[in-house]
Amino acid sequence: MSDAGSAPGSLIDDLFTGEQWLSDLPKIGPEDHFVDVVRELSIFFVDEINLPYSFEQFRTTAAGNKLRNLVDYLIINTKNKVIISALLTLKWHFSTLDADDPKINETRATACEIVAWRYLSRLSEREAVDFCLYEIEPLTDMDQSIQSSSTAVSERSMLLPRFASRRQTAISRPATSRRTELEAAMLNMGSTPIVRKNSDAKHAVQDPTSSFIGLTALEIAVVSDSKKFLSQAIIQKIITGIWKGDIYFWEDLNEHSVKQPQFYNRAESKPYARLKVPKYIKTFEFIFFVCFLILYYVVLMERDMYRIYPSEIMLYIWFAAFAYDEFSEFIGAGTMVYSVDIWNAFDSIIILIGAAFMGLRAVGMIKHNDDIVNTAFDILSLEALFMVPRLCSLLSLLPYFATLIPCLKAMMTDFIKFMVIVGIIQIGFLTTFSLLARETFSMREMNWTLTRVFFGASGEGFNIMNEIDPRLGPPLMIIYVCMTNILLITSLVCVMRESFSRIFANAREEQIYVYSVYVLEASTSNSLTHFFPPLNLIPLFFVKPLRIFLAPHHLRLLRIHLLRISHIPIVSIIWLLEHLPGRKYHSGEALFSSHIPESTQLLLDAVKTRENRAKGKSAGKSNADSARGRSYVSGSQTRVQSNMTGGAIDHEEFTSGGMLKNVDVEIPGPECAVEIAMVKERETELEEKVAALSVQIAELTALIMKSQNTGGFGD
């Protein structure tokens, strides 16, 4: 454990006088590993947050003072790059935890998310890029001998040793969902005893966070549904930078390339590095899909029973390239990000339908069976249900459609759940009516009749109720019509309306979340070489078979050379687009500022002032600091600048809600500076007492409300 945070800790204790709980703040050093940071932060949130609060209460009331002070403490104490990842991991952990009070866990999850984006907003933009795109390292460094071992890499391995080891670890695991693996890690994190960091405990207990190695904070934010975090301005600026290529990960296409986030510089950037830009990947993917759809319609229009036209051969090539590209995307992005995107479900169905068509088409042609061939084309016609909407996936980048799609997805989920109840009731009535009308109607006829009644054709039910049974038929049919057309249909409409309202209320967050998934899915792959479809069939047919004869190093070089040769036209088009006459050029580094926010600077100045006073500065310096001091209070930041010659003080107060107030205070002359400083000091002490009292009142109010809900104060 690093002791880097011990020195600033005393300064923080001086700044936050009157807050006894600050002695339990997490001690996080700048070099502490992700495991240690998660454990320290989890102890803090479990110990300090014991009452339910909403997101708005944390933002606007004294309930959020602990979180504000924690952010300030972390800003001064350390700049550990895994803090954001650790906070978002804990957010996911608390949101999925079933133990204790669910409302308390939800509050802790919200607190983790708030601290994450507040901490990030206190950094400079370039530091924020480093924090968001930093990949979690393993506990121990990889043996350097693996770097020179030819058996440690394959044609798909990373060119940096630590990525290669990570890749091998992923390959050695069972072929299960990575999201399922992380959810299991969440459960293990909850069941594993959380202890204070020490060398023995850290290595004695199996690390439940090992599944997060290799992930960035943005990836964890996506899989943990941290939509408020993703909707922050700095996060969206980073994601937009990745989308446009202002931030990219591979410097060049060669065997010595290392995956690391870097800013785009047109003078230094290599042309083939632009093949990994998500904007260009999705653009050429759209062009490929348009050609795919055209070939699909051409084959349906030609529809020859026993003759294969060139267009059908091209369609098979497109099917194979599309399936292989989806498989590569699934392996590269991982099941976590891949499963979040709803369009990937469409892609999987398109591949399954295409495989069924080609299989039945081959069997029908071999057996010369017209029925099988016609069935094959009938199955192919189902592709239009998924291919045409899939073509419109780029509409997800537009705010309206990006909001509407999650609404439809949520409504569809609730509809499927609700139809379970409908199915149970339908089976019950179908059984009863079929037995009563066993001599008049078959079960199939009765099933279709009840289905039509369910969808509004009540008259058909009333027409046959006497034929079902003269005595029991009418009352049972009336009950069935009332339950379906009045109770179930009305309930279904209300449920779906609630789902739509819930998602649409957070329209901006949903749109940003869809956009973030869209970008990260195209940029999180650890593979250096990316072949655009249908050119991705080249390594499949000409490189994969050579694995038996060639060493992995030679296979990797072969993939690189094939990519360079086959993608010359695509690289040329990209180069022309980026070098068009009159096109404005901005380097990626120039778009992200290196200056820290003013609030952070004020806090650092306050710490520096306290440090100078603690070291025993001269009396003149102390008086100057008192007259021209910068004071920090809990929940607000106050800067006082006094112009000793002008006779005025500009008082700027940064309140907890982020509002800036300017107050001009007239003073008779410089001789009153000491008196004004004493008044300000007394005001500061009063504000601290009021803030502490507000926290106590808020906690007492929450405790009373909780006791009213549970019927008492419990144990």
UniProtKB/TrEMBL annotation:
Keyword Membrane: yes
Domain Calcium channel YVC1-like C-terminal transmembrane: 289-578
Coiled coil: 676-703
UniProt-annotated stretches for the region Disordered: 611-637
Xref: InterPro entries: TRP_calcium_channel, YVC1_C
Membrane-crossing residue ranges in chain numbering: 280-301, 342-363, 384-403, 415-437, 477-496
Top-level division of the source organism's lineage: Eukaryota
Alphabetically ordered keywords of this record: Coiled coil, Membrane, Transmembrane, Transmembrane helix
Name of the protein: Calcium channel YVC1-like C-terminal transmembrane domain-containing protein
